[in-house]
Design goal:
Number of domains: 1
CATH class: Alpha Beta
Helix content: 40-55%
Pfam families: Bac_luciferase (PF00296)
Largest sheet: 10 strands, parallel
Keywords: Monooxygenase, Oxidoreductase
Strand content: 15-25%
Protein name: LLM class flavin-dependent oxidoreductase
CATH superfamily: Luciferase-like domain
Structural class: alpha/beta
InterPro entries: Bact_Lucif_Oxidored, Luciferase-like_dom, Luciferase-like_sf
Shape: globular
CATH topology: TIM Barrel
Distance between the termini: 12 Å
Radius of gyration: 20 Å
Organism: Bacillus yapensis
Order of helices and strands: EHEHEEHEHHEEEHEHEHHEHEH
Number of strands: 12
Number of helices: 11
Length: 348
């Protein structure tokens, strides 16, 4: 069994605080790099940056940010969380991440998906009417780029390739590839059928409601003849850790409200607000929201591991303007408290 891995990621949002003030793009970029260095020095396994193309994010050129992180870190693996392959050129994405693998000396992974935001479709001239077909075609092209240095290919959404030289090649024979999955059963089935790792984005609710999704993934992989011992599932989501569960909720809730309230408006929800008292029950093992003490988060991860069979956890600790000093404390608790508890329990 693979050893359980722990990591953190940033989406790089810079939304207004309670006083209406937003961070500068430059300071937010610097925070992301510092966060990665903290995670590397703490001994975490993986650091990720997500792709977004809006003024309230700084991560449109997420591969460039990861390249900067690669030169500031030594051991931690680097990934996208995630790459919106539907609206990108798979050749360009592959070249960027192969180069990142050279810069990081073989520490690069990639998560491909369709994303929770849709701004890249109009920005790059893609039609939402082709939402599923775009992803299917471009994913399959990316898989071919992984296998061959010289590629001939033809599809519906980009110009054909005729003996195209795909360079550079990465340090690794293949870049470790994950498919980002929200709540769509068809996406879980596709990842399993193709024999690709699955990265689950879980934001709340009860883990039992997600188990059918992971069951579909493992079942599809087996039916397609893949060696499931070589496949992996990860869980990502909103996270925060403090010395006590009460402290974690109290420090988390204003930033959670700021973040969720801001982005809920994009989805037609004009008002979002919760209280610390309302969130306190979310510390229980049977709740997905990854907020609490180190012991409580470890219990959640172990509970979900029984249901999902996952082997990686990644937390979004910097959401909603959480101060970098607090993020650093959370990273330390994840690496030095949560991880040892989980590793000891799973070794038994």
């Amino acid at each position: 069994m693979r050893e359980f891995e722990f990591g953190v990621y940033s989406l790089g949002e810079r939304i207004p605080d309670a006083n209406g003030n937003s961070r500068t793009a430059g300071s937010r970029v610097e925070d992301i790099i510092q966060m990665a260095k903290m995670a590397d020095e703490a001994g975490l396994d993986i650091f990720g940056v997500g792709e977004h193309h809006r003024l309230d994010f700084v991560t449109s050129s997420y591969a460039m940010l990861l390249a900067a992180v690669a030169r500031e870190t030594k051991n931690i693996k680097l990934t996208s969380t995630l790459s919106v392959i539907s609206t990108a050129d798979p050749v360009r994405v592959y070249e960027d991440f192969a180069t990142l693998d050279l810069l990081s000396n073989g520490r690069t992974e990639i998560i491909l998906g369709r994303g929770a935001f849709l701004e890249s479709f109009s920005l790059f001239g893609a039609s939402l009417n082709d939402y599923n077909d775009l992803f299917e075609e471009k994913l399959n092209l990316f898989l071919k780029l992984q296998e061959q240095e010289v590629v001939s290919w033809q599809g519906n959404f980009r110009s054909p390739l005729q003996n195209a030289q795909i360079a550079p090649r990465p340090v690794q024979k293949k870049l470790p590839l994950w498919i980002g999955v929200g709540g769509t059963p068809a996406s879980a089935v596709r990842a399993g059928r193709l024999g690709l790792n699955m990265a689950l984005g879980l934001l709340g609710g009860r883990p039992e409601s997600v188990k059918p999704l992971t069951d579909l993934y493992w079942q599809s992989a087996k039916e397609a003849g893949h060696d499931v011992s070589k496949l992996r599932v990860s869980v990502t989501g909103h996270s925060y850790i403090a010395q006590t569960g009460e402290q974690a909720i109290t420090e988390f809730v204003p930033h959670y409200n700021q973040y969720m309230g801001y982005f809920s408006k994009d989805r037609g929800i004009p008002y979002f607000y919760t209280t610390a008292e309302q969130l306190m029950p979310q510390r229980a093992a049977g709740q997905i929201l990854a907020v609490g003490s180190a012991e409580e988060l470890a219990e959640k991860i172990l509970y979900q591991h029984e249901l999902f069979g996952h082997s990686r956890f990644m937390g979004q600790f910097d959401m909603g303007g959480q101060p970098l000093a607090r993020v650093e404390k959370s990273i330390d608790l994840l690496a030095n408290k949560v991880a040892p508890i989980v590793h000891r329990a799973l070794s038994k």
